[in-house]
Amino acid sequence: MNEIVLMSDPKIAAIPVADCGEPLVDVRLQESFAVDSRKADQSGVFAYLREGVLTRLLKAQELLPGGVRLLFVEGYRPPALQRFYFERYADHLRADNPDWSPAQVREAASRYVSPPEIAPHSAGAAVDLTLMSADGRELDMGTRVNASPEESDGACYTDADGVGSEARANRRVLGDALTAAGLVNYPTEWWHWSYGDRYWALQADADSAVYGPREL
User: Fold this and answer.
1) Which UniProt keywords apply (predicted)?
2) Is 192 assigned a ligand-binding role in the annotation?
3) DSSP annotation of 212
4) Residue 140: closest CA among 171, 186, 96, 107
5) Ligand-binding site membership of 121 (annotated)
6) Are residues 38 and 30 in contact, defined by beta-carbon separation less than 8 angstroms?
7) What is the percentage of the chain residues whose pLDDT exceeds 70?
8) What is the CA radius of gyration of the chain?
9) Is the pTM of this model over 0.90?
């Protein structure tokens, strides 16, 4: 497995943001796009993404093999909710590892939840998604979407060892289509892909991110 740069790495926070002002749009308005309700919130903001991210997802869907579709799980996440998720997970890690320093807790937490100040979801730049068959059946990806490293014994990592051959093949199908459409993966989460955020800028060797945190 290649060395993984975590969201907590200072080089991510050091990347400047030059927000292009692109709007957040509701992916549910796209009839060809399947949206799952497991992360739905009362206001419906979970289904929003930056316009350019949605355009690239639709392109990725066109690149998938026949009979396979993307299944959207979560996009935009308000900054306050992102902070809640991060702090809750950090609290669990701190309780289970009382000898860890604050820096160790932050680093370990960022494997699964991005630090709120740089979170791609809060910029409308990230999407959690999986694959489904034409009849609506989720394909085997080795773990559930949003499985933690502890729950999955590390199988949530995109290139994890020990994942079955079918799941590995499905991850490759997903990754090939999304990469070809211009998105980048966070390697600790096979389901998390983004475009235009700071992590994308690092992977794409861009001078700056084009999407920064937004309130919706």
Assistant:
1) Cell wall biogenesis/degradation, Dipeptidase, Hydrolase, Metal-binding, Metalloprotease, Protease, Zinc
2) yes
3) -
4) 171
5) yes
6) no
7) 99
8) 16
9) yes
For the record, the structure tokens of 193 come out as 């892909």
Q: Give the C-alpha separation, 203 to 126, whole Å.
A: 14
Strand partners, 130: 71
Phi, psi (5° rounding) for residue 17? Answer: -115, 125
Instruction: Scan for tokens 């990347």, then name that residue.
Output: 15
Dist CA 199 CA 13 (whole Å): 9
pLDDT at residue 21 is higher than 80: yes
**What is the phi/psi pair of residue 188, to 5°?**
-90, -5
For residues 113 and 79, give the distance between their C-alpha atoms in angstroms, rounded to a whole number: 12
Average pLDDT over residues 22-33: 93
Q: Is 87 a catalytic residue?
A: no
pLDDT at 1: 47
Catalytic residue among 138, 166, 189, 215: 189
Tokens of residue 106, six digits: 């932050």
92 is in an annotated binding site: no
Alpha-carbon distance of 109 to 157, in angstroms, equals: 14
- pLDDT tens digits for range 88-122: 999 999 999 999 999 999 999 999 999 999 999 99
What pLDDT is attached to residue 189? Answer: 98
Mean pLDDT value across residues 153-161: 96
| Number of C-beta neighbours around residue 17 at 10 A | 17
Residue with tokens 């995109």: 158
User: Which residue type occupies 67?
Assistant: G
Which residues make Cβ contacts (< 8 Å) with residue 98, sequence separation at least 6?
none
pLDDT of residue 2: 67
